[in-house]
């Protein structure tokens, strides 16, 4: 067959032997190239599968990353707590403490340390008082972050707090009636300004300062926290304000009400990743919400948010009233 082909090529094209061999080699290459095209068409497209992104896998990867980050934070917190525990034990072994009655509202740092309270915890109590915090009940001492429960059980019988009525005036004072006394008009006190019911979302510092136990600092802190959230939708949110003990919160809720709260809504289907910021939600969780919306489309109900693994149910309960579809 090849001899006949070489004869026809030499006779028709007037090729010599070298040109005939080159021509036949070129024909073989062309045939191989054509066959290879058909072969590659039947092979599976691995590159296209590799480039496609599975949203479920992406969410699983983000969840694993979050678990690793939380584990790192927990290990760091454990080391931090162990370090404090060791320092407390060494502090307790090297000093002799004397238990005596004390008022946590007025006790100095040195007096607190003499009772067995570590120096860093005593500074924390002083800092709490400097920001307007008060101890109205014995249990309020446990509101101090990381206050040891076993130490509280030892100090609880020695905690002395002033009566709600205050100390009585001394009765052995002598009064000189030789000079005619004139009636003096009583100055207005805070108790004389009786608070009336008000809306917590529309109240200002003047309304809050009429409540017993609320001063300029605490009233400004409540307003700041309310504005940071975008308004209160529940009375329990007042308990989240730093520095408010249980007695003061009960007094605030006695007069403060919430009706038709004008919340500052977040348009969840339009907000961008840079704009989506709120006190209740962490930045990486906000990014996962935006990523889920980009993959699955706009949100239409609360059930759509339950599919986001990084958004736990507790956080969703807090942040959902601020969403607007």
From TrEMBL:
PANTHER family: ENDONUCLEASE/EXONUCLEASE/PHOSPHATASE FAMILY DOMAIN-CONTAINING PROTEIN 1 (PTHR21180), ENDONUCLEASE_EXONUCLEASE_PHOSPHATASE FAMILY DOMAIN-CONTAINING PROTEIN 1 (PTHR21180:SF32). The chain crosses the membrane at residues 20-40. This is DNA uptake protein ComE-like DNA-binding protein. The keyword DNA-binding applies. It comes from Arcicella aurantiaca. One of its GO terms (molecular function) is DNA binding. It comes from the Bacteria. Keywords: DNA-binding, Membrane, Transmembrane, Transmembrane helix. It holds the Pfam family HHH_3.
């Amino acid at each position: 067959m090849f001899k006949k082909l070489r004869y026809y090529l030499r006779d028709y094209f007037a090729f010599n032997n070298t040109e005939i061999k080159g021509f036949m080699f070129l024909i073989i290459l062309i045939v191989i190239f054509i066959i290879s095209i058909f072969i590659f068409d039947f092979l599976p497209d691995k590159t296209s599968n590799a480039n496609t992104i599975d949203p479920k896998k992406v969410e699983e990867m983000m969840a694993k990353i979050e678990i690793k980050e939380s584990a790192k934070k927990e290990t760091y917190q454990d080391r931090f707590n162990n370090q404090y525990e060791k320092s407390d034990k060494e502090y307790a072994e090297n000093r002799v403490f004397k238990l005596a009655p004390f008022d946590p509202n007025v006790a100095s740092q040195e007096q607190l340390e003499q009772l067995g309270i570590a120096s860093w915890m005593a500074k924390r109590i002083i800092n709490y008082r400097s920001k307007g915090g008060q101890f109205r009940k014995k249990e309020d001492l446990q509101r101090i972050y990381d206050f040891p429960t076993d130490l509280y059980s030892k100090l609880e019988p020695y905690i002395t707090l002033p009566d709600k009525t205050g100390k009585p005036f001394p009765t052995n004072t002598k009064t000189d009636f030789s000079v005619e006394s004139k009636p003096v008009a009583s100055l207005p006190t805070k108790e004389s300004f009786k608070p009336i019911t008000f809306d917590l979302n529309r109240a200002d510092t003047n309304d809050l300062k009429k409540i017993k136990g609320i001063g300029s600092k605490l009233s400004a802190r409540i307003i700041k926290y309310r504005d940071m959230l975008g308004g209160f939708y529940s009375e329990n949110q007042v308990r989240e304000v730093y520095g408010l003990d249980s007695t003061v919160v009960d007094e605030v809720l006695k007069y403060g009400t919430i009706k038709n709260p004008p919340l500052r809504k977040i348009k969840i289907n339009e907000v961008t990743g840079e704009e989506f910021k709120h006190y209740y939600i962490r930045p990486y969780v906000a990014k996962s919400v935006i990523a889920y919306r980009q993959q699955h489309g706009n949100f239409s109900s609360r059930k759509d948010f339950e599919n986001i693994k990084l958004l736990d149910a507790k956080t969703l309960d807090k942040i959902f009233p601020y969403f607007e579809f």
